[in-house]
Amino acid sequence: MKTNRRTFVGGGAAALLTGSTVAVAQKKYDDGASDTEIKIGNTNPYSGPASAYAAIGKTIDTYFKSVNEAGGINGRKIRFISLDDGYVPSKTVEIVRQLVEQDKIFALFQPLGTPCNTAIHKYMNTKKVPQLFVATGASKWGDPKNFPWTMGYQPDYHTEAVIYAKHILANIKDAKIGVLHQNDDYGRDYLGGFKEGLGKEVGRIVKIVTFEATDPTVDSQIIQLKDSGANVFFNVSGPKAAAQGIRKAADIGWKPVHYLNNVSVSVAAVMKPAGFDNAQGIITASYLMDATDKQWQANDEMKTWSAWMDKWMPGANKADANHIYAYGVSYLMTEALKRCGNELTRANLMKQAAGFRKFRVPLLLPGITVSTSPTDFYPIQAVQLQRFKGETWELFGEVMHAESS
After folding, report:
1. Do the domains at 28-155+296-382 and 157-286 have one common CATH topology?
2. CA nearest 56: which of 133, 119, 123?
3. What is the Cα–Cα distance from 342 to 359, expressed in whole angstroms?
4. Taking Cα atoms as reference points, which of 121, 63, 38, 42 lies closest to residue 332?
5. 10 Å Cβ neighbour count for 74?
6. Mean local confidence (pLDDT), 270-289
């Protein structure tokens, strides 16, 4: 059950008249929060194999600067401290300890990567510091009973993979499936969901090959998949490896029905480097509008975002979906902080994050909203399939909702 949140007027303390006595609402602060500032930490791979995601950290930083220019959150400015972990879990541990123990952050927001978040998962919960709206869709981030200080954001990988599997079974006759996945928790989460979705048809997987995040290419893996006789390709890769895989498949004349995980849908970071001709027909699941899709040009949310980009990030490539992703999740974080009012405790932040009901975050696809509860830490549980055509994605079918945990 949700409790009613306290409302504060004009960012100041709410006064309650009781006879001739005025009671002033008590301000409450944990480390990282004060009358003037809220200190938010973040880790992001600004260098290394996952550096295509640097756009997320840069956009979040810029978003909070725009919030500060507009007066901050309930009169407080956001101090955003984002550090480069290079997508190396041991480095994530090192800098998160610095953020928590030295910088005294109020919360860790949008730390990126499944292996990196896994490395700090128990630490953050032991320290009781929010690890909030993490930038990974691993299903483990929705476990409030055992990890009450960690919450995901995007649709979870397991559910996404189930949807691909069911689409393959319904639409591809005599499917022989080859799977490429990153050799870590992120890749295994997708594989587990995919196998579950195939059910008794799991034997249709004829080949599974893996790669390390630090591998220079996935060329040899693509050759192995072609040689297996697979006519369906399930590609579980980050942006760099995804683009390589698409390009290599075309180079060797392998033309399977290609399913690509949602984390690599960026037209600018993946499809264009892979070659638009090579990317035709690829299928993925999405929950966000795409700036390259002309159907959204007249959409008010897209126009607002585009104007914001023109003002705040004029040199950025709007075709990079990471900018839209980061803008939306920053909007959600800002709202959660607003709802805390003057009770800026970490426990209250988690309470507010767990209290959204069908909340509209800008640039989510129509019909998709954010809902959470004290027992449901999966904010977004719906996707729609799309197919790459020309130089953009084309949505098809209906919005599909995952069952709430």
Report:
1. yes
2. 133
3. 22
4. 63
5. 17
6. 98
pLDDT in tens, 37-46: 999 999 999 9
> Within 13 Å of residue 28, how many CA atoms lie on the same side as its CB?
12
Measured distance CA(381)–CA(364) in Å, rounded: 12
Tell me the fold of 28-155+296-382: Rossmann fold (3.40.50)
Q: Which of 123, 115, 137, 110 is closest to 42 using CA atoms?
A: 110
| Axis crossing angle, helix 321-339 with helix 300-312, rounded to the nearest 10 | 100
Cα 159 from Cα 403, distance rounded (Å): 9
Burial of 240-255, coded b for 16+ CB within 10 Å and e otherwise, reads bbbbbbbbbbbeeebe
Fold of 157-286: Rossmann fold (3.40.50)
The residue ranges of every structural domain in the chain are 28-155+296-382, 157-286
Cα 71 to Cα 88: distance, rounded to the nearest angstrom: 36
Contact 269, 242 (CB under 8 A): no
Structure-model confidence comparison of residues 259 and 1, the more confident one = 259
What's the 3-state SS for the chain? CCCCCCCCCCCCCCEEEECCEEEECCCEECCCECCCEEEEEEEECCCCCCHHHHHHHHHHHHHHHHHHHCCCECCEEEEEEEEECCCCHHHHHHHHHHHHHHCCCCEEECCECHHHHHHHHHHHHHHCCCEECCECCCHHHCCCCCCCCECCCCCCHHHHHHHHHHHHHHHCCCCCEEEEEECCHHHHHHHHHHHHHHHHHHHHEEEEEEECCCCCCCHHHHHHHHHCCCCEEEEECCHHHHHHHHHHHHHCCCCCEEEECHHHCCHHHHHHHHCHHHHCCCEEEECECCCCCHHHCCCHHHHHHHHHHHHHCCCCCCCCHHHHHHHHHHHHHHHHHHHCCCEECHHHHHHHHCCCCCECCCCECCCCCECCECCECCCCCEEEEEEEECCEEEECCCCEECCCC
In this prediction, residue 117 carries a pLDDT of: 98
> Which band of pLDDT confidence, cut at 50, 70 and 90, is reported for residue 401?
confident
